[in-house]
Protein 1
Amino acid sequence: MEALELLLMYFMTFGGILPPATDWGGMVELTAASPSPGVTPDAYARVETGMTYDDVVALFGAPGISVGRIETSEDCLEWYGWKGRDDFKLLITFDNGRVYSKNYITPTSEEGQSASDAGQTRAGGG
């Protein structure tokens, strides 16, 4: 079920655009990862569009697990997942190194539901 939840987060994050299947190894790593104590709903609420990956790592106190990447000549989209206590999982999409959108799933969410905070505009590149 955890892989299905992550798949749902991918679709919600980027409108059905998924990384190639060969890049999905991180999903297995995320579901098997030990919880990080700094990955909490409060910390998630402080993640803002435009933050860098390093900003997010500093906020959570742990690096994310790369679960996908798409790179073109103009853009680089990356998905990183974190796992907190009580099976709280989150997925953050980075567009050219900056937070573009964020999603989470809690064990109390109804099956197939998650929350999403997508950026209204593309995060600044660079």
Protein 2
Amino acid sequence: MKNKNVESSKKKPSFFLSLMPLLAIAVFLGLGYGLLRLKAEVLLIAAAAVAALIALRLGYTYKDLEEGIIKSMMKGMPAMLIVIVVGALIGSWIACGTIPMLVYYGLQIISPKFFLVTACIVCSIISVVTGTSYGTVGTIGVAFMGIAHGLNIPLGHAAGAIVAGAYFGDKISPFSDTTNLAPIAARSNLFDHIRHTLWTTSPAWLLGLGVYFFLGLTSGGGGSGSVSLIKTGLILKTIRANFSFHWLLLLPPAITLYSAVRKKPVIPNMFLSSGTAVFLAILIQKLNLQTAIGSLVTGFESKTGEILVDTLLSRGGMSSMMHVTLIAFCAFAFGGIVQHTGMLDVILERLLRVADNPGKIIASSVAASIATALMTGSSFLSILIPGELFAPAYKKHNLAAKNLSRTTEDSGTVVVPLIPWSIAGVFMAGTLGVPTTAYAPWAVMCYSGFVFALLYGFTGFAIAPKIRDDETIPGS
């Protein structure tokens, strides 16, 4: 009886009150982080405090809020564990010479004019095969950033092309967690979802390649030829003098690639790749045991004497990812409160009220996924919550569930890395050494996909009708 009384004392938030946390996070992060460059962690906690005060006014207790925060953290824990292990991967791959070797040969092979196109295509292929954007950015992405430094490519352009390529695979690879999650949430099936997603992803990806091709032709590498050649020569000379190359250095990425193709567990195989890299660091680079193993935890510290190369190669380690984890915890505090107290549901329900035709339903789905991404910073929640909420509406209007699963990917999965306070945004920025706001405009595919989704929704192009009740069956 006591529990029933407690539950009945909790009020449903109004639409105005539900908007307050979203406005708070927009103001705090827009002014505090964007303008004043204050620490995002403090601003996220401040926004969570606003949400908590509203929740207390609605009759929730601190214990209720704590429960919501813990649930939110548990949902994001798998992604956070992968982020930490990627830190070990980066540090060990640099220590053994894999990334320096890729940078060395990449500088000699890749033309500055076609660097952005090449980076996007290669990262797309790797991410499709592996199904992980984090792994792609943390390995081949880091190597491409080294090449960008050497070729004098604007780093924001380079990071944008890398992130867009990495998320191409994250969006359509059958090995990707988000690609598998979207059809589950929308009640469609995996392979119909992937084929349907190509209708929005392919033109968005090609549009990005067009932009990168144009930038390459007009910028010519982002600087004067003589400066670029001097810089490239310096990096090549320094890397070759300080690292030994051997074909065995391709073994760590080969292990990662093979494990992904064979659908092996991600984290154990990343550690296997890292352990192999540590062994090669001792065998080929002649590092002592303490330094080689230390690269897993604190990263690799380059001591070549050249500031440019040392800055480029001194990175990685699990400890370097702790700032990502801290921001994630703060974001989960905010997201857990607004979700557990029903504030997010009220906003999404209001969006659903105006959805009375296919165009409006898809537009509402896009808005819901983006709002969820902004409020939670989680690609999983930006798929799950709108997917659960909008599935009945799609069914009611005779729209195939794969339209919904595609839309949550277009406006959730690939939008999250453009949000500075999300786990993905912080990881990409920290790993590539470029602020989220600097690379976001150049990750063209990540924000043009939902534009195509809206265009298709209002024109009816590439919108599939529902042909059977059970849409988990292939061919629906």
Protein 3
Amino acid sequence: MSRLYSLAYLTSHRCTPAEAVRIAAETGYHMVGLRLWPNAPGAPQQHLLGQPAALRETVAAMRDTGIRVFDLEIIRLDETFDPHRWDALFEIGATLQAKAVLVAGDDRDETRLSDHYARLCETLQPFGLTADLEFMPWTAVPNARAALHIINRAGNPANAGILVDALHVGRSATTPEDIRAIPRHLLHYAQICDAQAGLAFTTEQMIHTARCERLMPGEGTIDLDGLFSALPADLPVSVEIVNFSRETGISPADWAAQCLAHSRSLIQNLA
């Protein structure tokens, strides 16, 4: 089976949803990821919720190109969790026939975080969406083992998932063995990029790299060969590469094409 590639929000952050869909089609991707809910109040996002004209344009672009929406961003689980806070996101996800919602765990109370994650999964089920918990070293779910632990505590819901981002693997206490230990049914997609690996970065440095300064696969020191060899060979890959300084003067389409070329080359060359 040929590998499927998705154009992640961060790679196409300069685009509207409809533009991202059309660029994905032009440059060889199969799917897109959209950030329709910001990762913090007032943070950048793509605007589609409550905008019927933009939604019609996006649906038309999907119909014209055959590109589908794979994942939506982002839900952050904290102590103020309300499962209906994101109803508009879930509803538009069903309209777009999206598959997954990216989830971050911010609540340091492990019992409460597990309970809230379970409730989120239950809420998402009628919309046909999985809740893909992304471990990030500066959050309450810092590595792959922690993500699996939270999902097990939540009762291993049918639509649970773990999102593996290469950047966070390279900057957390996560090993290829930890990745292999994730049950296959919990893996729906993985994100690829590169950076300098290590555990000595500050929270501010890690967040800056994640949001502003990722590298093309093969340009950093993350063990991407080891990571993607540990993941299922048919797992869809979300190409998530943002680099504000390098994107200057490059069109979103050219940037998306470069990111896909580097990602595909590395994965196809795996032993």
Protein 4
Amino acid sequence: MPKRVGQKIKMTSVDELLGVPSVAGCDEIEVEKIRAFKNHPFKVIDDDKMHELVESIMMNGVLVPVTVRLVEDGNYEMISGHRRLYAVKEIGLERIPAIVKEYDDDEAILAMVDSNLQREEILPSEKAHAYKMRYDAMKRSVGRPKKYSQFGSISQTDEVLAQMIGESRNQLHRYLRLAEVIPCILDLVDKKALALVTAVEVSYLDTSVQEMLYEYMMDNDICKAFQLYAVREYLKEHETITRMELWRILNENASKDESNRFQQLTITKKKLQEYFPVFYTKSQMEKVLYQLLEEWKKQNNKSEE
């Protein structure tokens, strides 16, 4: 069990917690007036590191002010400091030290992404959406006043961004493609269950096909890139694909090893309904099927003798 806050911690006084760091332009802002950045791509997780941050703030206060921008309704949008804001809310503080910046929408995106990319651990899903947000903001900036000129032309945007983030151009494009993958499949990449290059192949499929693909992977096995190549080849000649057709293609192109041999059998609900009464439960149907298989096995063994 992770250590929870409040256990054997030397409590800092309220006055110390509310103290404003000596940073130029820093002020205190009501926590209730700060909202998360729209489509914030970085996850705020209540893990051991968050518990450490909460304890640190309880003991020392907020040492580094958050960065926000004023929005039209008189409230503020968080630019940098979502984890600190979460920790402050956990403690129950009503105000937080903050620096208010005058950013337009694209400037805010650039600042938000850049500040969060300094984290030690960044998930593939976070990189995907963060890179996509920054890439789109940089493309929109082309042709604007000179303060944006360092981004060059639209054709150069990926090269400039790749240099900024320390990725190759090809790897950047892989992450940009990941932004087109549905969350449940992208979560498999974060968990290292699905290879990044395979997820890139998934990104070229429509959302509805991706949803069927996820269902297949949950019922059978994680797909490989060559299986998805076959699906994409099918879709070149067909506008749509049914669930059954998708599963057929994936099964036919699955690895032909012994362990996978028993993962390629699919019996549809519609087919089962032809043989079982509507009131039969799943367990009753399974029992009948096992009995029939056992009888078939005995008969098959006799025929071989």
